[in-house]
Each structure stands twice: as C-alpha cells, then as structure tokens.
Amino acid sequence: MKKIIIAAIAREPLFEYKSQLKDFFGDSIYIEDYSLEQPDKKIDGDLVIVLTPTLKAIAYNVLKNGKTPVICIQTVPTKKQVEIINNIPDNSKVLIISAFRFYAKEIIEVLNRLSKESLNFIPYYLDIRDKTIENIDLSVYVGDESLRPSFAKNYINIGWKKIHPQSFKEIINILFPKNSNFIRKLNTYEKSVANIEFSELVAIKLKNESRIEVSGIIDCMKEGVIILDEMDRIVDYNNLISKYFNIEKYVYENYSIYEIPYLKDIADSLKSINNNIEIDYYFKDINKAFKISKEILRFQSIGFRKIIRVNYNEFNKRRPENNKPKYKFEDIHYKSKEMGECVDIAKKISKIDSPILIVGETGTGKELLSHAIHNHSHRKKNLFFAVNCTAFQDSLLESELFGYEPGSFTGALSTGKKGIFEIANGGTVFLDEIGDAPMNIQSKLLRVLQEKEIRRIGGNESIPINVRIVSATNKNLKEYMDRGMFRKDLYYRLNTYILNIPPLRERREDIRLLIMYYLNNLGYKYKVIDNNLVRYMMNLPWEGNIRELKNCVDYLGYMSGSRITIDDLPKQYKNDNGNNINSDLKVNNDKRVFYGLSEKEEHICKFIVRALRKENMGRRKIYDLALEKGIQTTEHKIRKMMKLLEDDGYVLIKRGRKGCILTDKGIRLYERIIL
C-alpha cells in the first residue's frame, strides 16, 4: 500500500479530491491530509499531492524525506458538466460561485474555453459577499455550496470538477509504473472528462496565482495603482484606488476603464501623455487633487500590462529640494584641449545673466553642463528646473512652464497653478531639446526673453519674472529656421552665448580617462582592462557619445572576468567600423540624405519612408508602429518629420482613411536608402 499526503487551502476541496483518489486507486493507497494550520508538522509518504502551485513550495519545506516527489494536480469538468452549462439559454448572465476569488476565476476561464460564447459568466466569492449583483439569470455552484448569496434565486450545482487524466497518469507513473489495470481504468475514465489540454490548465492556474501575488503587492504600495489589459479593461486596482474614489474592491474587474466614474477621466487625460510623465489632475466634485502617470510593465505569467499610478496630492506643492542641480564643473572629466576650451568659456559666461545656447550631439553632456553653469553662477542658491521640450504634449508643456488660472480647462486645479518660470524666480530654467519646442511655446518664450514677464493660461495679468534661461539642442537650428520650423527672432535671443560641446570622436584622448573613471565609479575598480581594448575603443565612432561609452563600460564591467579584453565587447562593436545598425528597421544609416537633421531625426525619417512603402497609413499608426519597433519618439516628433518629408516632396499627407502616401520621389528615396 502506498501512502499519499494531500494538501489544500480549504477543507471542502481536500475531502472531495481525497475521495476521488480513493475511488480510483481503492485499497492500493492510504491517504493522509495535511493542514496549513500545522506548519511545524513534518510529513512523510510515497507522494505528496497539492491542489495549487503555491502549496508546492510549502510542501517541500515540511517533508521529512527531501526526495519524496511533490506534484500539483489539475482538475477538469466532465463532459456532462459542460453539457449542463451549454443547455443554459443564450445571453444568460451566469454567476459562478466559489469561496475563493482565484478559484472562481479559474473555473470561468476553463468554461470560456469549453462552453458556448453566448454566456456571460460573473465570478462571486467571499471578498464581495456583501455586494448584490443585479439581473442574474442563474447561479452555478461547482461542488462547494458554503457561500450562498441572498440575491441568488435560481441556482444549480454541477458538482466538483474531476482530476485530469494526465494527473492520474503522473501518479501512476510514480507509484504504480507497471500496473496495467490502472492504465486500462484510466483509458475508460478519460472518455468521461472534457477535452482540454493539460498544459492549458497549468497555464490558467499559474496565471491566476500570479494575479493574486500581484494584487497583494499593489495593495502594499503607498500610491493608487490601476492595472489594465491590452483592451484597457481593468485587471486589478489596489485599496488606495478604492479609498480615493469610493469604489468597492474587485467589483469593476474586467470592466473597461472608460465605464467607471473618475477612472475614465484619468485614462482620458493620460491618452496623449508619454509614459512615466507625471501630470496634475483635479476632481472638482470630490475636491481632490492627484499626480497621475502611466507606464508599461511586464508581469511574469500575465504578460505586459498598462499601469496607471495615482498619487494623492493634497496641497499640490512642488518640492524645492528636488530642484537643486547635482553637478559642478569638477564633475566634468576631460584632458583634451577642445573640452578644456568649452569648460573655460562656460565658466566665464556663467557669471552673467544672458541666455546661453548649448549645442552638442546626443549624449555629450548638455544637461550636466547646464547644472555646472548654474552652480558656478550667483544664482546657485536658488532653484534650477530642467525641462525636456519633447517630453510633454503641447498644451501640457505650456501649463507646466507658464502655469494657469483657476478653471482654465477641464481638470485644472480650482486654485490654479504656478508655472516653472514663476517658481524658479531668481534661479535658472534649462530648456532641453529647444529645437523641438512647438511654435506656440516659441512665441511665449520670446516674450519671456524680451519682456521678462509671463502670462498664465487663462489669465490677463502680466507677471514679472527673473530667471536665467539655458537651452540646449542637438539640431541645426539654422536649417530649422530655413524650413520655418524655428523662429528666427527666438534663435537670435537664445544664442547670445553659444557653447559647442565637441563630440567624443573629436576628443579621443578623453576616452581612456572616461573609461577608467566609469570603471571606478560603477563598482569595477578591482578589474584590469587590456590596453589593446582601450586603443580599440578609442577608434570607435561613439555616435551616442559619453552616454554610449558609459553604457558600454558598464556592460564590460559586469560581463567580464577579472581582466577585460576585446572579446568581452558587445557584438555591435566587433564589426569593421563599430556601427550598430538596427536590423529591425533594415535601414542603411550610413547614407545621410536629410542634411541639417540629427541622426535620430534622420533615423525616424527613414523609418517613416520604409513604413509608407509597405502601406499607406496615418501619423497615429506610424507612431504606434515606431513604439512597437522600440523607437523612442513622440507624436509631435512624428508630425514634425512628416511635415518635413511633405515639404521636400517625399510624402503626400491626406486626410481621413487614406492616410499618407509616398510620392514617386519618395519611392526613389526608398530605393536609395533601404537595404
């Protein structure tokens, strides 16, 4: 006789599946049950069976003999049970009742795969036992009747699910590998249960257990969290969301977020906002202000999900301590003459209040230099704000910079809000990627520079300000002016003093110094780097400049042994010229055809040409496709590059469903630049 230990979370399923095992194996087995209420009790037997994956780890911890096998059995409806469900009238609203949330959801997922599509299954479990669900046509118990909702009038019990044949087969292989009687019995048993793959049941169970873990994690967080699926349906939300908006926990699972009061307003506000950008939102009727943002996260087993974060912001205050610049000129590491001249000029002009325009390729350290300029100026004790002009939607950028009066637009705070220029009074505002600032913002910036005053959105009063503006770009602004994409009057106001940061390839003697600096500061100072590798790296083009070099050194430090050699380099640096061409886009980036643009903008233009060669599409679809390919951009940037391509005769922008198309000139361009 073989001894089986069976463990379950609740008594009812434990007794049921203990009975099913006994019915199948008869006197060949002796079954002992294990309760989670006895955590110190050690168990011993020929096989341990658990009903959920979570219990598997617990079982291993209480085994007397660590070699005892532990398996998690799967359960499946019988063909008769599926037939009963399929006999329910079409379009019925069917309540699936179980004591546990995860079990009710698991049953529904299985029934959705086995039964007709016209039935609407609603889970009901202990956590929502006080809620009345309206218009239920039929309530269904799957074995356990311990939970009886008072509003359930018509109900049936289809009985417990049965142990899956594959689970029985696993038990036979472990305990009775040569018993042909059990094999024959299993063949007969298999004909009575519904046809669903064992692997599907495993995936469903793991998915639901993962959801429970995620739910527990977000309930511990100190901010409101909403998790959405790819169709913007609610997967989960935490207790703080329930508290903020007075909505019951679990009630709105699987609802579209656009069906739920307050939450739909948050979702609408974030539609056109980039990921990880925090904005203010005010609900007038409940008199609450929040900071809201969105991002994409990947959860194990349940895949990619959209996350909305909601932070309660009672006083809507900006914290000045977050606006102190971190870097000084001492933090800029160099020994080249070119960089030395740049730093010397920066130190001199930091002492005056005139605007400064920093020009340099991506990754050269433009923001770091702006920090150093502020910390070397007489404004160093005042606030410093860094604003990336491409990180915000046009209207949002305007409200962030200039503020707004109460009630200026939907979602505006009832108290109004100061903009960055007001808050930074006496300090410095750094405008990064100024070349991408929308035209309406450019005209308002001109007023700031000329009149030293701003006007809030929705306001009539001119507010005097005293800020120093440092701006930066990696664009050819003169080329932008010629194309009508940047105001000439603003350009000549911003460029009173121009600082040109040389790219890394023009100051190669700094590369060795920077490699050693990053090795030490990234935690790899104990490693030795081969001189041949340093010489090799000094000859690479470093199109991403210092940022790219830092990432490469970090990779080398982590992936190498005690000595770092050329063999440790990432693959993209090992070809003949060191260039890393994005194979997904299949674009020849060595051929420059859009002069006056940054390399990133040229890359986007080539991507647009390739996308339109495949099919006609609108800007929004091009933007979505770019995000799918991992291209970091914004809708504003796509719109700007599309306008440039149209002006040059490469594309024709049409309204409506026809979208945008390549012209004959655009097709010739495609043939010239696409591999």
UniProtKB/TrEMBL annotation:
PROSITE patterns membership: SIGMA54_INTERACT_1, SIGMA54_INTERACT_2, SIGMA54_INTERACT_4
UniProt keyword Nucleotide-binding, yes or no: yes
Keyword Magnesium appears in the UniProt entry: no
Family matches, as InterPro entries: AAA+_ATPase, AAA_lid_NorR, P-loop_NTPase, Sigma_54_int, Sigma_54_int_dom_ATP-bd_1, Sigma_54_int_dom_ATP-bd_2, WH-like_DNA-bd_sf, WH_DNA-bd_sf
GO MF assignments: ATP binding; DNA binding
Stretches assigned to the Sigma-54 factor interaction domain: 332-558
This protein's UniProt keywords: ATP-binding, DNA-binding, Nucleotide-binding
UniProt-listed GO biological process terms: regulation of DNA-templated transcription
Protein name: Transcriptional regulator containing PAS, AAA-type ATPase, and DNA-binding Fis domains
